[in-house]
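Give me the fold.
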Amino acid sequence: MINQLNNIEHPNFWDMQYESKKTGWDLNSPNPVFNYLINELPFINPSKLIILGSGKGFDAVLANEKGYDVTAVDFSSTANSYCRELNQKFKTQINIIEKDFFELDGSLNGTFDIVYEYVTYCAISLSKRNQFLKLVNKLLKPEGRFITVLFPIDNREDGPPFSVDYNQFLLETNHLFNLEYLDKNIPSVKPRKGKEILLVFRKPLIIKE
């Protein structure tokens, strides 16, 4: 049996990271790139948004304050307890789902205008990356947007976070989405400058062959 505390696919692993404060991915504030996205890029408007791997919920709170109908999904009970506290503190109305996003109810398929992820794609097992992209496609409405801040764009060997090959990512998304926007000159936090890219994809009305 795999030790749950060493298994990144089990919530207990992530609970332990939060409880021991080994949360290098967590900014303890909204992602400045996400803030830039929803405040300065005019083609992203308040709509129905789901955040996969929502963590403590800072981005979820920011989005809800800006008028988005937000669903936040994370399987870490510790992360979700933070998210609930923020939700109450800022009097926001976030729908918090404590569940492995690979096990989301099929009734959510095709119901979201935007799927957003940050430091989630890089934290899942490499063998599940394609499954993740297919999940995003299922959750989106036709012409819905998939927003990702790809990190880390480097050549590290270990993880999480596991390195993301930008060119490979584009190949893997090509048959599911159309690339709509790409920005490398983004307001990343200092340690991540040059190691992340903002990408916005659009789900086509007709799926590519």
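The radius of gyration is 16 Å.
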